[in-house]
Design a protein that fits this description.
The protein is α+β, with helices and mostly antiparallel strands. The protein folds into three domains: 73 residues, Multidrug-efflux Transporter Regulator, Chain: A, Domain 2 (Orthogonal Bundle), CATH 1.10.1660; 119 residues, Roll (DNA Polymerase III, Chain A, domain 2); 105 residues, DNA Polymerase III, Chain A, domain 2, CATH 3.10.150. Helix content is 33%, strand content 30%. The strands form three sheets. It has a twelve-stranded antiparallel sheet with strand order 8-5-6-7-19-18-17-12-15-14-13-16. α4 packs antiparallel against α5, α6 packs antiparallel against α7 and α9 packs antiparallel against α10. The longest helix has 32 residues. The termini are far apart. The relative contact order is 0.09.
């Protein structure tokens, strides 16, 4: 190849977006050797065919990918290169999360007064409850409190609550040791999801309130700190207290109801409750409903939900059967286990108009 068909290092640097010094480094490392080196002057020349590799190399390094991984990506086919990229991104995200956690712990300990003991709860029980209730949060909707989990401790119990305005989930735990005083705070949901990993592994977790967060003290492991949200949490107690009288009650198999919802053809689902059955119907009226055997008391009722509201409310219920307490077609339905009622979810219905 003649020099007329080659680019000097400066021109190739402009085409590829790499600096001349970076090109010399990558040439010496074997990742991007020049097409030709003048034996007298030592000038390096590159071909137009090398621009794509140079550009890809620059982009991969912008992702902070190590040279060994860059070489593997550049030498792989599309599928393997994609897998390696996903693997690298997952590691970067995990490393960033670890740094955030450590920074939060350091910040929380800077000039921090001794924490206020709140309660002690069994770790596996607390972790399971947090995961169940957090399904009712709504991250990224412009209302920070809806992305958090409300923790309330009293001398009798520890209560966890979350809401996305369409669902409200609450679970009450019996503490392993009686809470020493009343305390309430709304905990950052994302940080709590991460903390659950360590909480689950500890037989006993001690909750300790600090000025800007809450500590989860665990034996023989790293304590976890989660920030408190300053925004006001919705008045869920008023909502619960204002619920009307239950007019219809149905007990149905959780597994059968979930299967019917999973196979449901639309975004809106109707529950027709009557005559020892719950019928799961589609809003378009064209698809036949699925009739599930149920124990029903009270008035016959038709009520409609968004699938995205009803499905998680049912899926997080504990036990083989779910109990539905209904108050009318336009009132919240209470969904809980038929025989294990400490997890309760309220699901808001939608307009029954099929054209809506």
């Amino acid at each position: 190849m003649s020099h007329d068909e080659l680019m000097p290092i400066g021109a190739f640097a402009r085409r590829s977006g790499l600096t001349s010094s970076a090109l010399r480094f990558y040439a010496d490392s074997g990742l991007l050797p020049p097409a030709e080196v003048d034996p007298v002057s030592g000038y390096r020349y590159y071909s137009a065919d090398q621009v794509a590799r140079g550009t890809a190399l620059r982009r991969l390094r912008e992702l902070a990918m190590p040279l060994v991984a860059v070489e593997a990506v550049l030498g792989s086919g599309a599928d393997e290169a994609s897998r390696l990229l996903d693997e690298h991104v997952a590691k970067v995200v995990a490393d960033a999360a670890a740094v955030r956690r450590k920074a939060a712990v350091i910040k929380a300990s800077l000039g921090e007064a001794p924490g206020l003991p709140v309660a002690a709860v069994k770790g596996p029980v607390l972790a399971a409850a947090v995961e169940q209730v957090l399904t009712a949060t709504a991250p990224g909707h412009g209302m920070p409190a809806l992305a958090g989990l409300r923790i309330e401790a009293s001398p009798e119990a520890v209560t966890l609550t979350a809401t996305d305005r369409y669902r409200l989930s609450t679970r009450t735990l019996v503490p392993a040791e009686a809470p020493r005083q009343t305390w309430a705070g709304t905990v950052n949901g994302d940080e709590l999801r991460t903390a659950v990993v360590e909480i689950r592994r500890s037989p006993l977790v001690r909750l300790e309130a600090a000025s800007n967060g809450i500590w989860f003290r665990v034996a023989d492991q790293e304590d976890r700190h989660c920030r408190l949200l300053t925004e006001e949490f919705p008045d869920h107690r008023l909502m619960l207290a204002s619920l009307g009288e239950v007019t219809t009650r149905a007990t149905v198999s959780k597994g059968l109801l979930l299967r019917a919802l999973e196979e449901h053809p639309g975004e809106r689902v109707g529950l027709h409750v009557a005559d020892h059955a719950v019928n799961v119907a589609a809003a378009d009226g064209e698809h036949p409903g699925v009739t599930l055997p149920a124990t029903v008391t009270g008035q016959a009722l038709q009520i409609w939900f968004e699938l995205t509201t009803l499905y998680p409310a049912v899926s997080t219920a504990i036990g083989p059967d779910v109990l539905l307490d209904l108050r009318g077609h336009d009132q919240p339905v209470t969904i809980r286990s038929a025989d294990h009622g400490d997890l309760t979810t309220l699901a808001m219905p939608v307009n029954s108009d099929r054209s809506a």
